[in-house]
Fold this protein.
Amino acid sequence: METIISFIVVFGALVFFHELGHLLLAKRAGILCREFAIGFGPKVFSFKKNETVYTIRLLPLGGFVRMAGEDPEMIELKRGQVVGLLLDGEGQVEKIVINHKDDYPNARVIEVEDADLEHGMYVTGYTDGERLERFAIKEPAFFVADRQEIQIAPYHRQFASKTLGQRTMTILAGPLANFILALVVFILIGLLQGYPVDKPIIGELTPEGAARAAGLKQGDEVIAINGERMETWAEIVNTIRAHPNEPLQFQIERNGKEMNVTVTPEEKTIQGETIGLIGVYQPMEKSVFGSVKQGLVETYYWTRQILVGLGQLITGQFQLDMLSGPVGIAVSTGKVAESGIYYLMKWGAILSINLGIVNLLPLPALDGGRLLFFAIEAVRGKPVDRQKEGMVHFIGFALLMLLMLVVTWNDIQKFFL
């Protein structure tokens, strides 16, 4: 249960900020965002604020922002269709009632002759079966279907109406939000826990270890070991690792006084290499500037590592069965959570970078695939046919789901069979 909760919290946060990036830039561009969803499947919880319905759905495996014009409108007025019109004081249409018109006795019932709900914003129809009238559509206006209101989206509120730059930034904002989230988390870790520094100072000691047994204390400054001057933490580590089971004379400074302490590193074999350990962690510091610097360094480092891993996958150096899907990530998240909140925060930041990079891959159905079509549009000077683009994304989504099934089955065999 702890594993499931940890996975839902971490992955839910990553998806939330990813989709929030899309939402904020879409709203900034003036696009009507119908729904902001975390998860897929049936709705578990929802509320509406302004124009957007915010929902949490049953399956916590992703999310989406449903923007006007991005998927086919479900309601279309056709010639001969009988609808009810609810008018404001100036005679403009506020609501178009598709069915259950008896619920609205004050509605003006018409038989539709013509309608333009994108550009002209009007509807014409026959009232009383004889007289043809034209009604202007107010903004905002709504369809009422099955007692549910759906906002009508004029063309200027649809995704396709925006400039290439606005559409590009709206799609790019999701992955960028993941990188920003990772940076912020790394900075927070530095502010709360501290960040490692390469100074010749004893950090936190393990409960059991040669350092604690010999009398070393956190904060001791190491001047020299066996007469050799120590300038950095890396030099201390290298010296200790090179002398397993050999007494080392530590010359330290504590509270302004110098003293000598003899420490004998314990012998450990790690990945076939025999080294010495004394049970001491690297020294940590806390500062705003240092935390920001460390956050930038960590974000760059993990971005580079993930890109290297993707390169190995492409070149065949990294096998498909080494990939992890939702099951593998959930299991790993549970194990990391057992190590403490700061390890979980760092794991979440790494996953956030990974999500951002994967979404930028130029593959259909991913943000990178959308950006690729925008690049083609920029070169051609006109957008690719929407039906053709939609078909490419559909095929790409199907292939991604197939890959997800393969990876998930590998995870199940790896961890449970």
Q: What stands out?
A: The chain has nine helices and 16 strands. The two ends are 19 Å apart (CA to CA). The chain has a mean pLDDT of 89. Residues 386-416 form the longest helix (31 residues).
